[in-house]
Design goal:
It is built from five helices and nine strands. With 219 residues, the chain is of the alpha/beta class. The protein has a seven-stranded mixed β-sheet with strand order 3-2-6-7-1-8-9, with helices on both faces.
Amino acid sequence: MSKPPPCISKVRFGSFLAYSPRGTSAQSILSQKIMRGIKNATAGYIKYAVGRLLAEMAEGKCANRLYEVLGKDVLVVPCPRSSLLVSGAVWPPKEICDELVSLGLARESAQVLERVTAVPKSSTAAAGARPKPLDHIKSMKVVDQTDFAPERITIVDDVITRGSTLLAAASHIRHVFPAAEISVFAMVRTTGLIPEVDKILDPVIGEVFLSGVDADRKP
């Protein structure tokens, strides 16, 4: 097995929706419902969310900034699940990628990355047991290279917390496509220490970066 690539220091990041993991307001509870619907690929949730994303971007609102990570010239790569992929398993990032391509927000989708060793889920692991970027890098491999040399590549996930998985995935993609513009995108981001969300539709462009041996993001 080849030596895993080093972790990159940062990558551009975009997301469309926000949710509060612990909020108790009506808006926060709705954000939790939407997050679960997307993360579990509940019928209709991903299709509706990507459709709303297209509408917001087309209208030139603040979501227009997401063209920095999406667009007709972008190759989208679904982020690997924490567990090993088995036939027929739900893979929300792949469904999001397919919808992005279907609606013209990406050029094509390619399953470039695969999880070869399962890691604990960050959402359920204790704080000290959450996988670090290097853990994710070691547990992934590149399984396919596209037939063209893409100039822009965006790795897509359903939900982002700190960004360790996406930073690791971007490290692998950077190693394989060193000349490409690499970005990451998550349909939903957690609001971290903010207890409540005042709006769910909250598109942002920021950065996921290496912080010591862990990852963090702004915003």
